[in-house]
Design goal:
This protein is of the alpha/beta class and 408 residues long. Helices cover 43% and strands 15% of the residues. It has 13 helices and 13 strands. Strands 1, 2, 3, 4, 6, 7, 8, 10, 11 and 12 form a 10-stranded mixed sheet that branches. The protein has a 3-stranded antiparallel sheet with strand order 5-13-9. Strand 6, helix 6 (217-222) and strand 7 form a beta-alpha-beta unit. Helix 3 (84-103) packs antiparallel against helix 12 and helix 4 packs parallel to helix 5 (185-202).
Length: 408
């Protein structure tokens, strides 16, 4: 009997379970059993191949599938280990999705704590007592959603608050608290227009307090103000227009032996494409776009500061001015500390005793921005030369911008 078992073990085909005769499929005694055990006992007390496994199928099939399942699980675990960064990235996306759904259930009511009013995107500002509403213009001005938490500026939220105050009879004025190098020309213009519409429809004033910097688009928005105050360390001005970065990678592509083919309908359709050099004609076209926005900027400053356009153009060569120079040139009205400026506004407007409510975006939304920022850091990065070239090819920014490159 022992010799038969030894022969079966030696002749067993790869993958064949022990205890099954390779010729007839008969059950034979298990090598793990003693002389009193039958083939139905199997190894280590497991069911024999002829007995049903846990699923009711013949045991041989069951244990083969168990072995295959184990391999699949090991492969899945190995894949997770190999792509740890991607896995964490996806987990964070799922968390943000869940948090976003939870925060989407906005009650619509502002949260008032002392002189601070916190509002979510879906909230409506409506107060029960008279107030001056303070809005912060912080960071780069853009109409796009903040990318991975890189900016505190929220265009839609700001315009919604302006519209709320326009409809709220308890609102008596708007105070702009500005600390911005400017930004997107379109986004800047939209905020300015919303403020001018507020003034026209309500007859109420707008004031601006400039903190560290109110340059380019930040200064443009302040032109909706009846009075402009600035900290003594503030930089102002930078009245001018620029495009974003327009890369020319033709030399790099040639060096790498890469050719780019583009089919277009006209000679200027691909203007600004980094794989093609800008022609003199295309540079003139772009300059025309810049000049048009510049003329509009000059007109806004002339209207806001009561200056002639000729005088504004002398000042508007793109340079930054100190607060002192700004007063001397008529770009701002007074240099004051914040508290002194607020006291003066209240006194001159007959608003003594009226609170300045500091309007803030909900911290819950800032939490999502923080999560997005963390998620950005975990995104897989590539160091290959072609990937770097691809970034340049897709990195051209043809936007017209009221933006200062000088930041404090």
């Amino acid at each position: 009997m022992n010799n038969d078992r030894d022969n079966n073990e030696m002749n067993r085909k790869p993958g064949q379970l022990p205890g099954l005769d390779q010729e007839q499929g008969r059950n034979v005694p298990s090598a793990a059993g003693n002389s009193g055990q039958t083939g139905n006992q199997g190894y280590a007390g497991q069911p024999g191949p002829s007995q049903p496994g846990p699923s009711g199928r013949p045991d041989q099939e069951h244990w083969k599938q168990e072995a295959q399942g184990g391999s699949a699980r090991k492969g899945f675990a190995a894949a997770i280990r190999r792509h740890k960064g991607v896995t964490i990235f996806l987990i964070i996306v799922a968390i943000i999705f869940i948090v976003g759904i939870a925060l989407g259930k906005d009650s619509g009511k502002p949260d008032v704590s002392g002189d601070t009013v916190t509002l979510g995107t879906g909230s409506t500002l409506k107060m029960n007592d008279d107030y001056i509403g303070q809005l912060h213009i912080d960071g780069e001005i853009t109409s796009e959603a903040s990318s991975f938490g890189t900016s505190s500026y929220d265009q839609d939220w700001i315009i919604s608050r302006i519209n709320d105050m326009k409809k709220d009879g308890h609102n008596k004025a708007i105070l702009l608290n500005i600390n911005s190098p400017g930004g997107d020309a379109y986004a800047t213009s939209q905020v300015y227009k919303a403020l001018m519409d507020y003034k026209t429809e309500t007859g109420r004033p707008v004031f601006a307090y400039m903190k560290s910097e109110a340059a380019s688009g930040g200064y443009y928005i302040a032109m909706a103000s009846n009075m402009i105050y600035a900290d003594e360390e503030c930089w102002v001005g930078s009245i001018g227009v620029r495009t974003g970065y327009i890369y020319d990678v033709t030399g790099l592509l040639k060096k790498l032996g890469v050719k780019v083919n583009i089919i277009s309908s006209g000679k200027n359709k691909t203007m600004g494409d980094p794989a093609s050099e800008l022609t003199d004609e295309q540079k003139e076209i772009m300059q025309g776009l810049i000049d048009d926005s510049y003329d509009r900027f000059v007109g806004v400053v002339a209207k806001g500061r009561g200056m002639s356009e000729k005088k504004v153009r002398r000042l508007a060569d793109g340079r930054i001015y100190t607060a002192k120079q700004g007063v001397e040139n008529g770009l701002i009205d007074e240099i004051e500390d914040y508290d002194a400026a607020v006291a003066e506004i209240k006194d001159e407007q007959g608003l003594k005793g009226v609170k300045v409510y500091d309007l803030k975006r909900s911290d819950d939304e800032s939490l999502i921005s923080s999560l997005l920022s963390g998620m950005a850091a975990l995104r897989p990065q590539s160091d290959s030369t072609l990937d770097e070239v691809n970034k340049l090819l897709t990195g051209t920014n043809m936007k017209v911008m009221y933006l200062s490159d000088i930041r404090k």
